[in-house]
UniProtKB/TrEMBL annotation:
Protein name: Glutaredoxin domain-containing protein
Listed PROSITE patterns: GLUTAREDOXIN_2
GO MF, one example: glutathione disulfide oxidoreductase activity
Superkingdom: Eukaryota
Matching InterPro entries: Glutaredoxin, Glutaredoxin_subgr, Thioredoxin-like_sf
Organism in which the protein naturally occurs: Imshaugia aleurites
Biological process annotations from GO: cellular response to oxidative stress
GO cellular-component term (any): fungal-type vacuole
Length: 292
């Protein structure tokens, strides 16, 4: 019977042999699969590179065709010769007068005209029909009669329109100042009395609204004869309310009349109702004064 040590050696040798056989078998089976995978990857890579090269060549071909089309279109465009335009005279004064030859018949008639003298040497032809003399008169070449030239007085008064433009600017600035002042006054209260200190009708309207009645807030009085913009304010009121005389009583920016109108409303007992109806909640109190 073999010894225990020999049995162990034989078992180990047998195990190594079995492992070697198994390893060789597995390797032999797996090798064709790896070779197949390598060949497949190489084939896919080759097809991808070929496709990219083909697309790049196609893009280059398309770009070249577009470039050729543009060049052909430019070559077919007609060349339009450009000629520089002559500058046009800016104004009538800059244009040169037209020189016209005078006929012999007209010269003979001019020689018979007793008004012809040394001053005729300085005459200028205008449109071939008349001659302009030094004295500002014209002479018809066919009739030989002289006629005065119509002078534009506005151009003589305001050369080149400079003064007119300046005056318009001054007036517009003044109108703007008046408009701003009028808007500022209308914000002083719901009732505004445009008055003049020496006017008896204004005094009557102020007495009724300020003394006979207690109105809160109290009516605001503007004396146009002492206000620096009085004439302008009166003109603006005439334009906006249609009333140029004083007094001119405004409630919420609308005129209710002058001294006689206020007196009539007071006599009829409708003044408070009129004021409240037009001013609304802006009038906090409106009643007859208790002393009355």
């Amino acid at each position: 019977m073999p010894s225990t040590r020999r049995v162990k050696v034989l078992a180990a040798a047998l195990a190594v042999a079995v492992c070697t056989i198994l390893y060789l078998s597995v390797r032999r089976l797996a090798l064709p699969r790896l070779e197949f995978n390598d060949s497949s990857s190489q084939d896919f890579y080759s097809r991808t590179v070929a496709a990219l090269d083909k697309k790049q060549a196609s893009d280059q071909e398309v770009a070249q065709k577009l470039h050729d089309i543009k060049d052909a279109a430019k070559a077919q465009e007609p060349v339009v010769p450009t000629t520089p335009r002559k500058p046009v005279a800016a104004t009538i004064e800059d244009a040169k007068p037209i020189e016209v030859e005078v006929s012999a018949h007209a010269e003979a008639q001019d020689s018979e005209n007793p008004t012809k003298g040394k001053g005729d040497d300085d005459a200028k032809s205008v449109a071939g029909r008349k001659t302009m003399l030094k004295g500002g008169e014209t002479k018809d070449l066919h009739s030989g009669k002289e006629a005065p030239i119509a002078v534009d007085r506005e151009k003589e008064k305001y050369p080149a329109g400079k003064k007119v433009e300046k005056e318009e600017k001054v007036e517009s600035a003044e109108d703007h100042e008046v408009e701003m002042e009028l808007n500022s006054i209308l914000k002083k209260g719901p009732i505004i009395i445009f008055s003049k200190s020496y006017c008896p009708f204004s005094a009557k309207a102020k007495r009724i609204l300020l003394e006979k009645y207690t109105i809160v807030p109290a009516p605001y009085v503007v004396e146009l004869d002492t206000h620096p913009l009085g004439p302008g304010l009166q003109a603006a009121l005439a334009k906006s309310t249609g009333r140029r005389t004083v007094p001119n009583v405004l409630v919420s920016g609308r005129s209710i009349g002058g001294g006689d109108d206020i007196e009539a409303l007071d006599a009829g007992g409708g003044l408070i109702e009129k004021v409240k109806g037009m001013a609304g909640k802006r009038i906090m109190e409106a009643k007859l004064t208790e002393a009355q």
